[in-house]
Amino acid sequence: MLGACSGPQSALDPAGREAAEVATLFWVMLAGAAVIWLQVIGAALFGSRWQKQPISERGGLRIILWAGAIFPTLVLAVLLAYGLRLMPVLRTGEPALTVHVSGEQYWWRITYRRPDGAMIESANELRLPVGLPVEVTLESVDVIHSFWIPALAGKLDMIPGRTNRLVLNPERLGTYRGVCAEFCGRSHALMAFPVVVMEPADFSAWLSQQAARAARTADDGAFLANGCGGCHAVRGTEATGTIGPDLTHLADRLSLGAGMFENTPENRRRFVAETERLKPGVRMPSFGSLPEGDLDAIVAYLGSLR
Ligand code: CUA
């Protein structure tokens, strides 16, 4: 049980301002619940073990009035006021950066909007500068998903036809894990993403590099000939598909398949060959029936996309 108290995906080990507020709210409520639980158990023991005389009807009514009505109303009112007080804190902040995230079955389309208006598309990995407020706008193209990075903030649903806004204030460098927190289909549990909080200078350098076209060292022939470019985009090539994740800088990402596997050549090969088996319900078919040479060439090409 204690394993949930820390690590890259723990709301109890906050690395952002919103998550810290949520964690404090949790501890305050837990302490309050513990005190009330002890009182209830104490009253039950007192009534069953030590209080041998029946109490008068007036006494009983008084207990119901104070312990059953006034006390819970006061406690809930105080907790409600405390919870409402947190809300403006969680909403304010002029963003230094806007990131648009769209939930898809079962991956994340992530578009960074730089202050100069340039849009940079990526997928399945979120990078953020430490100490700066980032506005995340959330949408969905198919069903309801929910965007949740427990270490940074509370969760917020991604609803088709509607844009929800979340402000993140990451305060600690590190790599965290975000997940989809709303059942969205067969591979709901396979819809996650790494979140990397970086120094602002490193983040700017990284974003500029992401804005560039892919630096290609391997041949894209097999990738294009087998139709991969119909669904995936690799900026600077004939691959301009928008159905699946943008692969322009795939080799730089930490994970494959939206947080499923480490991004290694063996895993890239497995994922391309056995997509439907590894991720049921995904829109990409498996390409395991391709000739070995084509599969090798595609995997080598994917590994060269930096
Ligand atoms: Cu997307 Cu669950």
What does this structure look like?
It is built from 7 helices and 12 strands. A 5-stranded mixed β-sheet has the order 3-2-1-5-8. The radius of gyration is 25 Å and the shape is elongated. It is α+β, with helices and mostly antiparallel strands. Helix content is 36%, strand content 20%. It has helices spanning 17-50, 57-91, 200-211, 221-225, 265-273, 275-278, 292-303, and strands at 97-104, 107-113, 119-123, 126-129, 134-140, 145-148, 156-158, 164-168, 174-180, 192-198, 255-256, 261-262.
Question: How would a textbook summarize the main sheet?
Answer: 5 strands, mixed
| Average of pLDDT | 91
- Global morphology: elongated
Tally the beta strands.
12
Radius of gyration: 25 Å
Element order, helices and strands? HHEEEEEEEEEEHHEEHHH
Order of the strands making up the biggest sheet:
3-2-1-5-8
Uncertain stretches of 5 or more adjacent residues: none
Task: Give me the secondary-structure topology.
Blueprint: H1 17-50, H2 57-91, E1 97-104, E2 107-113, E3 119-123, E4 126-129, E5 134-140, E6 145-148, E7 156-158, E8 164-168, E9 174-180, E10 192-198, H3 200-211, H4 221-225, E11 255-256, E12 261-262, H5 265-273, H6 275-278, H7 292-303
Parallel strand pairs: 1-5, 4-10
Antiparallel strand pairs: 1-2, 2-3, 5-8, 6-7, 6-9, 9-10, 11-12
The protein binds dinuclear copper ion (CUA).
Dinuclear copper ion binds next to loops.
